[in-house]
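G.,

No rush on this.
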Amino acid sequence: MTATVAKNYQPLTVETVKSVVEPLHYFDQVDQLEINEIGDGNLNYIFHLVEPATSKSLIVKQALPYAKVVGESWPLTLDRARIESESLKKAAELVPELVPQVLYTDHTLALTVMEDLSSHTILRKGLIAGKRYPKLAEHIGTYTAQTLFHTSDFFLHPFAKKELVKEFLNPELCKITEDLVLTDPFFDHETNEIPKVLHPIVKELWDDQELKREVAKLKFQFLTEAEALLHGDLHSGSIFVTEESTKVIDPEFAFVGPIGFDLGQFFANLLLNYLSQEATFRDEVDCPSYRTYLLDVIKDTWNHFTRQFRELWSSKGNDVFTKIDGSVELFLDKVWVDTIGFAGCEVIRRTIGLAQVEDLNSIQDLKIQYTIKQKALRLGTKLIKKHKQLDHPDLLLRLVQEGSK
C-alpha cells in the first residue's frame, strides 16, 4: 500500500520553510529567521520559526506520507493535515482560547502554520515533573463539552451532522486506533513492546476471554457510534499548559465517534501518571498529595464536562427527546461507562503496545518500572471488565487507589 501524494507535494526543509511563511507578511525579515526542526512526534515534521529582532515566532507543521516513528514502510494519508487544521478551526469557533490559532493551511503541501506555544509546557512533561495546573480540569471539561455537544445530533440539524461525518472521514488514522488501542495489545502481535519479565501477566491478559469480549464491544462502539466530532488522540502529549492557560493540539485523528473516547484517553493518561508517581516521588508526603491532585483533576474534569453539557442540552438541544426529563442523564450515564472502558484500553495500550508513555518508560529503576507496569495492566483490565459497574466517579477513584497499593 502507498499513500496518495499530491503531484506538487515536497517535504519541507529548514531552508524551504521560509517560502511558506513569507507570503503571510507575519515576519519583518524572513531571511533573518532562526529555524529549527523540533518534531519529536510520531507522524510529522514540526518547524519552529523565530525572528530574533522582534521575538515573533510561529510553528509550521507538515504531515509526511508515512509514519515517522516507523518509516516509509508504513504509508499514511496526507489528508490528515486537512483534518487536523479543519478540526482546530471548528474548535476555535467554540473555544478559541483552548486551541492554537491557525494562520494558514496548504492542503497540497499538507501543512499548517499556527501559533507558537513555546511559552507553554507539554502536559505530560509537567505531570512527570510534579507540576500542578489549577485550570486544567475546567479547561478540558470546557473543551470536551463545547466541542462534543456542538458537533452532535443533539445540536446539529441531521443534514449538517451527516455532512460533518463525511467531512471528517478518517479511515487510515482510525485504523491505527482500531489496531493499536483496541486490538493489538490484547493479542500476541508484532507491534507490542513487552519486556520478558512481563510475559506472564501479559499472557494472562491475552488468555482472558471475558476481557476480550468487553474490548470487542468497545471496539464495535468505536467503529459504529457516530456521536460527535472527536479529537481522537486526547492524551497528555496533545495538551500544552501553563498555570493559567490550556491549549489542545494535534487533532489529526479527528473523526465522528463515541463521545466517551476522548475523555477516556485523557483520564487514562492521568492514571498512568498517577501510577508512575510511586517512582517519581520517593517522599512519603509528596506522593499521596500529588496522586490526590491527579484524581481531583479526573473528577473535576468530569464535573465541568457534565455541568456544561447539561446546560447546552437544556438551552440548545434541538431534538424533541432532549426535552424529556432525565434524557440527558441517561446519555451522560452512557458516556461515563464508555469513558471508563476506553480508558482501560488506553492504559493497556500505553503499557505494552506501540507508542508507550514517558511516564512509565523514563523510570530508571527497571524493577520499579516493571512493577508499576504490572499495576497498570491490572488496572486497565479492571477498568475494561468493570466499566459498566463503575457507574460513578467515586467508584473509579476508589478502584484506582486500591489498585495502586
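When you get to it, here's the other one too:
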Amino acid sequence: MGIPFRFIQCGDLHLGAPFRYLKSFGRSLDEAMMRATYGSFQNIVNLAIRQRVAAVLITGDVYDGVDHPLEAEMHFVRACESLAKEHIPVYVVQGNHDPSESWKRHMLLPDNVHICAADRVDRFSLMVRGQEVAGIYGRSISSDTQYEDLASDIHPLRSDPFSIALVHGTVGSHEGHDQTGPCSFDALRRIPIQYWAFGHIHKRQILSEQPHIVYAGNSQGLHRGESGPKGCYLVDVSSRGSVEVHFHETNAIRFAEDTIDLGQVQSVVEMLEMLRHKKEMIRKPGMSILLTLRLIGEGPLSEVACDNAVRVAWMEEAQAEESGKHGVYIIGIECDTFSTGKQGAAPGMVSDYVKALEAMDTGTDSLMNIVKERPEWKRLGMYSRLVTGDMVQVAYEKARREGIRLLQGNEYED
C-alpha cells in the first residue's frame, strides 16, 4: 500500500507566442490575446495550488522558440516561484521549440524546478510526506536529438512504487505534426512505465490506459485550427497505483468552430439573427471566444454568400455587438456552399480551379505517385512507410478546400 498522490500534466505552453492569422479586434481584446499564453499557465499554477498537487509535470515547449522573449522567461520564473512557496516541485523536459541550448542565457530558475538533461535520462524521486511515491524519468530534446527516439532510453527501477516518464515526441503518426522524437506503441508497452506523459501534439488524447499514454495537448490555442477547450490534466494515483485522469480547461481565450446551413436561412435578416444565435450558444462568462463559421448547403443566400465583402459586412456587424475583452467574436465566415456540379455558383477563378481538379486523376494510387515524386519524400527516409493512402487522400481534400477558400478571399488570413 502506497500513499495516494496527484499531479498535473501540461505542456506546449508556448509562452509569449502570438496568435496567428488574426486582425485587430480593439485594444482590450488585442492585449488579452498577447497575454493569453501567460494567463493560461497562471491558471494551471492556480489549479495546482488549489488542488494541492504533489508536482507539476511539463512535457516540453515551455517557450515558442529558441529566441523567445525575456518577458516569457519572467512569467515562467514567477509562476514557478509561486509553486515553490507551496512546496510544489516542477519537472520539465525541453521540446523541439525550446531545445536545451535555448535555456542557457537568461534568468535563473527557482530550486523547485528540475530540468531533465539532454544527454542522458534523468530520474527524480517524487516525495509526499517524506516518502517516495514515484520515480519521474525524462530526457530533454537538443537540436541534435530532435529526430531520435528518446523514449526507448527510459528504463525504470524495479523498486519504483510508481513510474512516470516525460517525453516530448510523436507516438505513431499524427497528421500536421513533425515526427519529433518518434516512437511506437509497441516500444512503449515493452517498457515498464506506468504513466507516459507526452507533449508535442496539441490535441489532448489518452492513447492507452494500460499503460497510460497521455497527451495533455497545449494549454492555450494559438490559431483557429486549435479550437475547443485547451488546458491540462489533473491526475490522481491511488494507493494501489490505479490512475484517474481529469481534464481542466485553462485557456484564457478559446477558439471555436461551427456551421450554418444556408438551406435554413431565407434572408439577410435571418442570417444576422443566426449569427447572434451561434454566439449565444457558446458564450461563457469571463472568457473571450473567437468563432469561425462555415456556410454549407444551398438556399436563397448561396450566391451572395460567396461574395467576400458580404461576409465581411456580416462579420463586422456581429462584432459591433460585442464590447470589452470578454465576448464572442466572429473571426471568419467561410463559404463552402457550391458543388463541383454547379460551377455557376462560384466566381470565375474558383470555377476554373474546380474544373482543373476534376481533370486530374485523384485516385489514391495517383496521389501517392505524385507524393513519391516530390523531393521531400526522400528526406522522410524510413518514416515514409508511415505515410498511407488514406493520409494522402485526406491531405488532398483539405488542400482542395483550402484552395477554394483562398480564391474566394478571406481578409483574416495571411
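The chain has three domains: 5-249, 253-337, 361-414. Residues 339-346, 410-414 have pLDDT under 50 and may be disordered.

Enjoy the weekend,
O.
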